[in-house]
Amino acid sequence: MTTTQKTADLPAAKSADSAGTPLLQVKDLHVEFHTRDGVVKAINGVNYSVDSGETLAVLGESGSGKSVTAQAIMGILDMPPGRIPSGEILYRGQDMLTMSGEERRKIRGRKIAMIFQDALSSLNPVLSVGYQLGEMFRVHQGLSKKDAKAKAIELMDRVRIPAAKERVNDYPHQFSGGMRQRIMIAMALALEPDLIIADEPTTALDVTVQAQVMDLLAELQREYNMGLILITHDLGVVADVADKIAVMYAGRIVETAPVHELYKRPAHPYTKGLLDSIPRLDHKGSELYAIKGLPPNMARVPAGCAFNPRCDRAQDICRTEVPALHPVTEQDGTTLVGRGSACHFWKETIHG
Amino acid sequence: MADLDKQGGTPEQGGGDVSESSTTAEVEAAFAKTVDRGEPILQVRNLVKHFPLTQGILFKKQIGAVRAVDDISFDLYQGETLGVVGESGCGKSTVAKLLMNLETPTSGQILYKGEDISRLSGRALKAVRRNIQMVFQDPYTSLNPRMTVGDIIGEPFEIHPEVAPKGDRRRKVQELLDVVGLNPEYINRYPHQFSGGQRQRIGIARGLALNPEIIICDEPVSALDVSVQAQVINLMERLQDEFNLSYVFIAHDLSIVRHISDRVGVMYLGKMAEIGTDAEIYDHPTHPYTQALLSAVPQPDPATRDQRERIILTGDVPSPANPPSGCRFRTRCWKARARCALEVPDLAVPAEFRYVEGPAHHDSACFFAEDKPEVTHPQEPPAPEDPARGRAD
Ligand SMILES: Nc1ncnc2c1ncn2[C@@H]1O[C@H](COP(=O)(O)OP(=O)(O)OP(=O)(O)O)[C@@H](O)[C@H]1O
Ligand SMILES: Nc1ncnc2c1ncn2[C@@H]1O[C@H](COP(=O)(O)OP(=O)(O)O)[C@@H](O)[C@H]1O
Ligand code: SF4
Ligand code: SF4
Ligand SMILES: [Mg+2]
Ligand SMILES: [Mg+2]
Questions:
Q1: SS (H, E, C) B43-103
Q2: Nucleotide-binding among the record's keywords (chain B) (predicted)?
Q3: pLDDT of res. A283
Q4: What per-residue confidence (pLDDT) applies to B139?
């Protein structure tokens, strides 16, 4: 088996962009943190891409590196202790890690905006919501105070905050969790970005409010034809909104696939284990399938495949060789567009 | 609010018309009875908990009350798991604390084996506490970081030395560690040396120490990673069979609640909206709130996403300090009519289903209840296509 090639060029999904360059592409990204206890290799080769109008879901458990990847894209990593030893982050084909600071500033925050999990701590508590929304227009577009406020009200309306005109001068704590998250969305939308990165945007919300917020996000994405990177650990949310999925484990992408394919035929034992552990009606009363063991401590990632201590399929090679992200094919070798699996035994996993 | 005066009532007020036995010895004797499987072991009647809202620092003036739990009744049967679901702030944890005697109800009763336990003190209270234990939501903050695992799990023995004599404790604790799947040699370690899932096991071991009959679980797996949740759920189900436990299982993950529960109660703003068997609630919800809640849950199956009818509620949950008149759900209910603002619907089998048999025949607090099986979408993940995608056993 040719298992040791470091990166695999996956057949890219049909790009919506005419040029064929993805809107955003992350290539073999590495991020490490230099801490007192040594070097934490938080990201060890992340590859994913997203196009305009497309939703990429990044799925993984806590600590798997979802947020660190997003922070690297947004340029908000703590550096130091963080460091990016290698990798590329291409916006419309241009590497943001090597471009000039001025070029970068034109992209981050304007073309790419981010929504955080915890809206309350990402809004300034002593400034009114209207002021914070208006600031985007005053700073970036040089609008007058009055015009910026009018824009802020328009945006609040847009994200369905009732009585926006009356509430524009209220402070963040005067809004409910769902409304604060909608204000965050308004803020991200203000400059009409091409791409939104949403890091667990609804994890802190109740299901009925979560449904409202996801619904809003999907509608706005369609309307503006934005790319969306949705970071989550919720297999339900992913199934509901994603076009394609990148599964992360211990700082790497272990599987990529279009959404229907992934749920139907996972090609990585970790993905398969996650799907099998969903409670199913026909198994009520019997044991749930459970992946054994625990996610690894990122300061001591197991050698070889990081999943090997928990994997039922693990062989000797898994304990010594890091599996590359192999292109996944049908049994007869036909390519499966957009599919990849970082498992030495992906064939056995998908084709049984 | 007149109700509030009753708060912190004396123990003698407790039983009242319900139990005549008032001496501690009689109460203790009642607690020693065994309850047959399927008989009620806990009966909650008209339970109310209002937290006073005060103003002023020196002279506290009451300006209102948070109606966290507002007239709730339900039974827990011996050997069953009763799931309790509902959105944040609806009163789930307050119910748990009331059942555990960690809060005193404003009014209402909690009957354990027929005795009201909500206003007990002294020996009788100690006797109940032995039999009703709790597992908390957050495995990171609920364990004392300065105590060893052995001390944490063995702490209940300090209060109830009769369960394990001093010389026997270490062995008992090691047995408990083994029962919950932790290495007995970890007895001298501290909580920070364990992962979330392992800490939750420590919490469960502690809950089991006194051989309780009932365990109240408040979001026992919510803080855990997906791949670890299944391990803890399996453990809890195994222990239930092994030790003949009854569970009240509070959670917001509706698919986990369905997996583990025999019956499910749905709470909204301090009230029980609907209660029934898992199939009745999930496949034939008749209360609009339950229908909306179920339809909002994202299904882990992309094949169903365009077929599902989704009810997107508008607005947020109102404040429990100022709940709507009549039916609490009316401000978000698409079926609300004039009557809903005037009268509070009872939790009972709705008139239209009273004389029909079948799954719609269950308690639902709505004047216009309707069986709406179509809102519950297929719960099935896709059928395994390749033979290897079964369960690895
Ligand atoms: N000690 C207290 N003093 C005042 N209000 C309280 C107190 N404890 C709870 N409450 C209020 O009572 C209501 C119900 O709270 P509870 O903690 O029972 O909700 P919950 O259903 O467990 O929510 P969650 O899903 O967020 O855990 C909330 O409005 C809460 O703010
Ligand atoms: N500032 C930091 N210093 C050291 N380690 C960090 C820092 N930020 C994140 N990490 C580590 O990087 C890994 C990935 O974290 P993160 O991306 O936040 O995970 P998640 O997938 O939950 O979003 C974790 O092991 C985390 O502890
Ligand atoms: S490479 Fe080996 S250990 Fe890793 S997932 Fe595949 S089979 Fe399991
Ligand atoms: S009683 Fe009225 S407001 Fe309440 S749930 Fe039923 S229809 Fe809706
Ligand atoms: Mg994160
Ligand atoms: Mg709670």
A1: EEEEEEEEEEEEECCCCCEEEEEEEEEEEEEEEEECCCEEEEECCCCCCHHHHHHHHCCCC
A2: yes
A3: 66
A4: 64
Place of tokens 């209207």: A130
The number of C-beta contacts closer than 8 angstroms across A and B is 142
User: CB of B289 within 8 A of CB of B272?
Assistant: no
Task: For residue A261, give the H/E element and its range.
Answer: helix A259-264
Which residue's CA is the closest to the ligand 2 atom numbered 26?
Answer: A63
Cα dist. A98→A73, A91, A143, B320 in Å? 13, 12, 32, 54
Q: Which fold has domain A12-242?
A: Rossmann fold (3.40.50)
Contact B300, A263 (CB under 8 A): yes
Check if the beta carbon of residue B292 is closer than 8 Å to that of residue B374: no
Average pLDDT, chain A: 87
What average pLDDT score do residues B131-144 get? 80
pLDDT at B67: 92
A348 CB neighbours in chain B (<8 A) are 388
Nearest CA to ligand 2 atom 2: A33
Tokens of A152: 């802020």
For the question of an ipTM over 0.85, the answer is no
Please state whether beta strands A195-199 and A112-115 pair in parallel, antiparallel, or not at all (unpaired): parallel
Q: Chain B: residue nearest A64 by CA? A: B225
Neighbour tally for A132: CB within 10 Å: 17
Question: What's the whole-number average pLDDT of chain B?
Answer: 83
Residues with CB under 6 A from ligand 1: B 51, 66, 68, 86, 88-94, 252, 320
- H helices of A75-169, in order, are 101-107, 119-122, 129-141, 145-158, 164-167
Distance CA B141, CA A5 (A): 45
Ramachandran angles phi, psi of A11, nearest 5°: -60, 120
Burial of B158 (0-12, 13-18, 19+ CB in 10 A): exposed
Contact assignment for A295 to B386 by CB distance below 8 Å: no
pLDDT range class, residue A340, cuts 50, 70, 90: very high
**What domains sit in chain B, N to C, each tagged with a CATH number?**
4-131+212-375 (3.40.50.300)
Read off the pTM.
Answer: 0.82
- Cβ separation of B259 and A179 shorter than 8 Å? no
Q: For chain B, how many helices (H) and strands (E)?
A: 11, 11
Q: Taking the domains of chain A in order of start, what are their residue ranges?
A: 12-242, 267-351
Mean pLDDT computed over B344-365? 93
Share above pLDDT 70 across residues of chain A, in percent, rounded to a whole number: 93
Task: Say yes or no to pLDDT of B290 above 70.
Answer: yes
